[in-house]
Amino acid sequence: MENNELQKTSKSEMKNIKDFLKRYFIAGLLILLPLWLTVVVFMIVFDWTSDISMTYTLPILKYFIKDKAWIHLLAKILSFFLTIIIICFVGFFATNLAGKKLFKFFEDIISKVPAIGGLYSAFKKFISFFSSDNLGKDFQKVIFVPFPTKTSYCVAFSTGKRIINDQIYVTVFMPTTPNPTTGFLILVKEEDVIESDYTIEEGIQYIMSAGIITPENKTGLKDINKAENNNVSL
User: Fold this and answer.
1) 1 Cβ neighbours under 8 A, 6+ residues apart
2) Domain 138-229, CATH 2.30.30 — does that match?
3) Which residues contact 209 (CB under 8 A, 6 or more apart)?
C-alpha cells in the first residue's frame, strides 16, 4: 500500500512539474520568440547594409587608428550609417528634376543593353508593385483563387484580365508566405475567382503574417454564397 501511495505521489509530482514546465515554457517562448526574430532580422539587415560601405570605412579607420579588436565593430557601425545616408541622398537627388533626368538618362542606356536591360526593367517593375505610390495601381484587388486544388483557395492579387479561347481569365499574382516578393503568376477563369473586401495593404499583411493578422470587421469574402454552393471550405 505504501509503495502504491509513493508511486501515485511521485507520478503526481512529475505531472505537476511537466505542467509547470509546459505552461511557463510556452509563455516564455511566446515572449522571447518575437524578440529573437526581430533581432535576427535586424542583424541580417545590419550586416547587409554595413557590408556595402565596409570596403571603404575599414581601410580609412585602419589608416588613422592602430589595428585593435574593436576597430571592425566601429567600422561596421559607421558603414551602416554611411550606407543609410547614401541611400537617403540618392532618394533625395532622384526626386529632384535634375536627378530624374540623370537617372532617366542612365536607365535608357541600361535598357538598351542586351539581357541586362530586360532584367533591370523586370526587377524595377516588380519592386514598384510594393511601393506605396504604385501599390493600388498595379494590384487591382485582393482575391481568392483555387490553388493548388479546386477544393482549396489561396490569397492572391489580380493584375488584369485576358481573353483566351473566348473566355475571360484573370491575371493573378499569388505571393508566397511570409515573403510576398516571390510567388506565382497564373491565369484563372473569372468565374472561379472570389473577390474579397481586403485592401491591398491588408492583403499583404495577411500573407506576411501567415493569416495571423486579419483585418478587423471583415470576413475577407464578398461572394461567400459562391463558395458555399461549390461546397468549398475557406
Assistant:
1) none
2) yes
3) 178
Cα radius of gyration rounded to whole Å, the chain: 27
Closest CA to 231 of 146, 149, 151: 151
User: In Å, how far are 70, 71, 132, 178 from 75, measured between CA atoms?
Assistant: 9, 6, 33, 32
Residue 216 corresponds to which cell in the numbers above? 478587423
Q: How far apart are CA 170 and CA 188, in angstroms?
A: 5
| 141-195 residue pLDDT tens | 888 888 888 888 888 888 888 888 888 898 888 888 776 667 888 888 888 888 8
Classified as helix, coil or strand, 159 is strand
Domain residue ranges in the chain: 97-128, 138-229
E strands of 86-198, at which residues?
Answer: 141-146, 153-164, 167-175, 183-189, 194-195
**What Cα–Cα distance (Å) separates residue 200 from each residue in 31, 137, 138?**
30, 10, 10
* pTM for this prediction: 0.48
